[in-house]
Design brief:
- By secondary structure, the chain is of the alpha/beta class.
- It has 6 helices and 7 strands; from the N terminus they run αβαββαβαβαββα.
- About 8% of the residues have low confidence.
- The protein has a single domain, classed as Glutaredoxin (3-Layer(aba) Sandwich).
- Helix content is 39%, strand content 21%.
- It has a 5-stranded mixed beta sheet with strand order 5-4-3-6-7.
- Strand 6 and strand 7 form a beta hairpin.
Length: 189
């Protein structure tokens, strides 16, 4: 009787295992779409204006009023993210100083595993000017396939309300000038 019980237990596990493996989330792929990531609308009126979002509650990244949205997935404890911060700040500065880009391209950061306090600490320590969001419970991180940090995602918002990912890569942006050309190419589509 015990052998039969063990047999059925093993058989059930073998039948269920493929379902768990199929449910594994992979990082977003270029040409695809984002999962429905929800972030809290920032209380800061300046950030609301920057993002083109009003009110309270949550929003999704494609709702940001911009043709292109660049998302940095970071952790304040990640030494690569810390080293990348000046380069990302430089990218943000170049976008904001360009009349052609500043209203069409927006940057946001999501601190995976970071509390609001930790995100604020990272923001102050590295003088980040664009909105950063906390993902202390790893909800967004899981939706994105538990990517390592830093991870960058480029979203092209279309006029019909849809969006497409044009960039999805682990690691820093090695060449801001080249990345700006990639962004400009998306704006010209």
């Amino acid at each position: 009787m015990k052998k039969l019980s063990v047999f059925w237990t093993i058989l059930a596990a073998l039948l269920i295992l493929p379902a768990f493996l199929a449910a594994e989330v992979t990082p977003p792929s270029e040409g695809g779409k984002l999962p429905d990531i929800r972030l809290a609308i920032p209380a800061d009126a300046g950030y609301q204006k920057y993002l083109g979002i009003k009110g309270e509650g949550t929003f999704s990244l494609p709702q940001i009023k911009a043709s292109v949205v660049i998302v940095e997935i970071f952790s304040m404890y990640c030494p690569h993210c810390q080293r990348e911060a000046p380069s990302v700040n430089d990218l943000y500065s170049k976008i904001q100083s360009s009349e052609k880009l500043k209203d069409k391209v927006k940057l946001v950061g999501i601190g995976v595993g970071n509390s609001p306090y930790e995100v604020e600490y990272f923001k102050k320590t590295y003088s980040i000017q664009f909105p950063l969001f906390s993902d202390g419970e790893f909800i967004v991180h899981k939706q994105l396939g538990e990517v390592r940090t830093p991870y960058f995602i480029g979203i092209k918002n279309h006029k019909d309300g849809s969006h497409t990912l044009f960039y999805s890569k682990l690691g820093g942006i090695a060449d801001n000038a080249g990345f700006l050309k990639l962004i400009q190419a998306q704006l010209n589509k």
